[in-house]
């Protein structure tokens, strides 16, 4: 088997409840989660709201420090010492659920995509703008859209811009946290098809976080099912069916979610 690109080892994260001096018992969001992802794989993490999916995504991306456990990318630990490793952090990029709040409203889309090229890679401004235009074209955004701000784009266009910004730093892993859940079904299918095209063309590794099993099955080859901060089932995506599921919670999720087939044609 190939060496893992991403290693999550015994990660635990809890959050305090109440206020001082009357602190309650901490809420455990992620409880002893371990898994590995090889390069080029698409791993889906599915579960209902409150299952710990988004907290786990934040830990993997370096946005949240775990209470215990480790996350490694290519053998390098993200949260080494008191601060996470910024070099590793750049190789893992995140696409958030709400692109409107994750895109700077005062900058044009071209400026947003060009900024990490200038700041992280030292690319001259004219070259960064040209590359930004190429990346935006790759995700299906026109030159007209590139000159607009986030408020002037549709939800689907904003999500394409978020994907373009993630691609700008040439990451090895993209974590997508509920990245299509706020979109219409037809637009969801278009974004999922874009993700599949990018994977075929670039060999990107995806971690796709979703409460929607139908979305996971379109993009991912392997699935982790989370409940109350723990992984309760792991299986190939093709086995994620009522007949193939081994955990009762997974079967309940399957019975509750309609299957999305538009992106499969």
TrEMBL record:
Residue stretches making up the ABC transporter domain: 6-253
Signal peptide per UniProt: none
Transmembrane region(s): none
Gene Ontology molecular function, alphabetical: ATP binding; ATP hydrolysis activity
Biological process per Gene Ontology, one example term: transmembrane transport
Keywords linked to the UniProt accession: ATP-binding, Nucleotide-binding, Transport
Domain of life: Bacteria
Keyword Cytoplasm in annotation: no
Pfam family, one: ABC_tran
Entry's family note: Belongs to the ABC transporter superfamily.
Name assigned to this protein: Peptide/nickel transport system ATP-binding protein
Protein species of origin: Spinactinospora alkalitolerans
């Amino acid at each position: 088997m190939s060496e893992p690109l991403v290693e999550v080892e015994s990660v635990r994260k809890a959050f305090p409840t109440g206020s001082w001096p009357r602190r309650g018992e901490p809420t455990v969001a992620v409880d002893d989660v371990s898994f590995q992802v090889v390069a080029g794989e698409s791993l889906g993490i599915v579960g209902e709201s409150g299952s710990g999916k988004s907290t786990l995504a934040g830990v993997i991306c370096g946005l949240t420090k775990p209470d215990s456990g480790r996350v490694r990318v290519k053998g390098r630990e993200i949260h080494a010492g008191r601060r996470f490793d910024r070099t590793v952090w750049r190789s893992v990029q995140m696409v958030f659920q709400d692109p409107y709040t994750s895109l700077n409203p005062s900058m044009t889309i071209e400026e947003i995509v060009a900024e990490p090229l200038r700041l992280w890679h030292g690319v001259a401004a004219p070259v960064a703008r040209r590359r930004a235009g190429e990346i935006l074209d790759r995700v299906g955004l026109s030159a007209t859209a590139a000159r607009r701000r986030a408020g002037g784009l549709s939800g689907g266009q904003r999500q394409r811009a978020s994907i373009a910004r993630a691609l700008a730093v040439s990451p090895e892993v993209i974590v997508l946290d509920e990245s299509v859940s706020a979109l219409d079904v037809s637009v969801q299918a278009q974004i999922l098809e874009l993700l599949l095209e990018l994977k075929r063309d670039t060999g990107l590794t995806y971690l796709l976080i979703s409460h929607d099993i139908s979305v996971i099955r379109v993009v991912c080859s392997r699935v982790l099912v989370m409940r109350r901060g723990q992984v309760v089932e792991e299986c190939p995506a093709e086995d994620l069916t009522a007949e193939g599921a081994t955990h009762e919670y997974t079967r309940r999720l399957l019975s509750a979610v309609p299957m999305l087939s538009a992106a499969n044609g």
